[in-house]
Sequence to fold (155 residues):
Amino acid sequence: MSDKAAILAELQAAHDNFRSRIAALPDSRFDETWLGVWNLSQLLAHMSGWYGEMTGSFERVARGERPTPEGVNYADTDAWNAKFALNAKPGRAALTDWDAAYDRYVAAARALDDSQFGIDPEKGRPRIGNRLLQAAGIEHFAEHQGELEDWLARS
Fold:
């Protein structure tokens, strides 16, 4: 299995695990506040926002550009997260938007050349394809999976 195929499989497994826990929830559950001040719709909008940003990053890298647009800084993640949460759709429409954003993110990753994945032996760090899938995808699922499980167990 190639480096690209391996990390995409890891991403898909994390996605499927997360999504399976929310797939059958009724609309009303999407509006319950449980993650600080956020509800499930806002969490999904937050994740969708990062998928959108990283989809653009994949597209820029594929064109030979830097992943982040000139003048854009992702360091203030709280501000970005708040902005993304404002785009939350109500109920299951949030899941539909999240699914579409995830599909675009994965398609952009698949379109990136295989050479952009794996570990760079000279630098000893993951290549850009891995970094973009780790941060907004795999690690993002890991970050929120436990919180999601706790919420579902309480209700």
